[in-house]
Amino acid sequence: MAPPPAVAVAPGVFRIPTVGSWAVNSFALVDDDGSVTLVDAGLDRAPARIVAGLAALGKRPADVQRIVLTHAHLDHAGGAQEMAARTGAPVAVHAEDAGFAEAGTSPPNDRSYAIGRIFARLQNGRFPPVPVGEKLVDGQLLDVAGGLRVVATPGHSPGHISLLHEPTRTLITGDAIFNVLGMRYPPRFFCTDFRMTRRTAHVLGELEYDRVGFTHGPDIVDGAREAVRRFLARTVKPHTPE
């Protein structure tokens, strides 16, 4: 059975599966005026699925006013160039990942692990480069559907962010946490600094939210914060300042 083109996570917040039912997801946030903010753009073949997801919401590419990337990896930014061209929307990404998005190359892998050094030699991490119209910073409140908070969670990439939609109390984790066969961290060989990924994820346990959307994995809409905090309690070392 084909996956649904779009899944409601919260009022005005929708997950758009771009690979399988939930293997790789983008998100659409619909504002009161009908405009759309797209979060992540999948692989380079994802735009057709994203456009189909928008259509299921009664939206067209022209309704997309902003594209926000949680980070500059090819499974999140690969479709950004085409979606920016189709929509005319500017692309926003954290300042630390902006140069990678514009160059069309993923940040370096964590080479402190042997598997990271091996993976770095095997993959090129390239995707179509995309101009960056806005460089995001931690704590920034975007004027998106009543307020979308930028939450810096670096480590998976230098400028990795999660996003908190404050009106619906919905967290989008990006790749700070996966929900694939249960919650877990991203594979260490995909991270720039895996230890930092584990360390900064504690921030997600301190926020207030009721639902969680994952770029990799299905949503949690009941007891989401408690589930995330249980996961972090099992795995995250206490945070210490750098």
TrEMBL record:
Pfam families membership? Lactamase_B
Q: Report which residue ranges the record marks as coiled coil.
A: none
> Residue limits of the Metallo-beta-lactamase domain?
23-216
InterPro entries the UniProt entry points to: Metallo-B-lactamas, NDM-1-like, RibonucZ/Hydroxyglut_hydro
Name-wise, this protein is MBL fold metallo-hydrolase
Which organism does this sequence originate in?
Answer: Pseudonocardia adelaidensis
